[in-house]
Inverse folding.
């Protein structure tokens, strides 16, 4: 037998770098989101546009439809520089909704935002955090990191039928790949 810890047992730093997809060299031009996929969770959802309400709070998708996610349309489009915001319900009055499985998302999970121009901006989750709604860190969640990033936002924590969920679950992701129109889904 050979030395189990000898050369060739672990890939070299250059080989490890080559195994990771290179980050996109430049952000994409504007094109709105058409759908959002999270393959590891079985999520494949249509996207609707969201805006701020009169109190300058981000709205949510309609409570009577569990399927769509909402993309904040006044923020970055998929693949654009800045922090893009996507909101989805965990559940509705009729049962589980699009982000019901979000508690299972882990760093390394891929999030695919297909754009109306046919390209797909692929993000990779690097952190998942839960914040009490009373202590929501706006700058940490919404702040611009100077590169294309994505936040998946849903409810979490304890549920009270009078006040709703006590917390928000946020998945933090960064752009790691751009698939052109001709790329396989």
């Amino acid at each position: 037998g050979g030395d189990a810890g000898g050369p060739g047992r672990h890939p070299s730093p250059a080989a490890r770098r080559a195994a990771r997809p290179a980050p996109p060299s430049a952000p994409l031009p504007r094109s709105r989101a058409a759908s959002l996929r999270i393959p590891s969770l079985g999520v494949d959802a249509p996207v609707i546009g969201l805006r701020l309400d009169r109190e300058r709070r981000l709205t949510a998708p309609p409570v009577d439809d569990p399927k769509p996610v909402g993309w904040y349309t006044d923020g970055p489009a998929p693949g654009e520089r800045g922090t893009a915001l996507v909101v989805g319900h965990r559940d509705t009055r009729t049962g589980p909704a699009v982000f019901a499985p979000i508690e299972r998302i882990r760093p390394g999970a891929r999030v695919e935002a297909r754009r109306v121009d046919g390209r797909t901006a692929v993000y990779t989750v690097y952190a998942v955090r839960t914040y009490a709604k009373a202590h929501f860190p706006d700058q940490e969640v919404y702040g611009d990191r100077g590169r294309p990033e994505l936040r998946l936002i849903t409810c979490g924590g304890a549920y009270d039928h009078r006040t709703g969920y006590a917390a928000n679950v946020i998945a933090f992701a960064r752009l790691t790949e751009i698939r052109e129109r001709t790329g396989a889904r």
Remarks:
- The chain has one domain: 13-179.
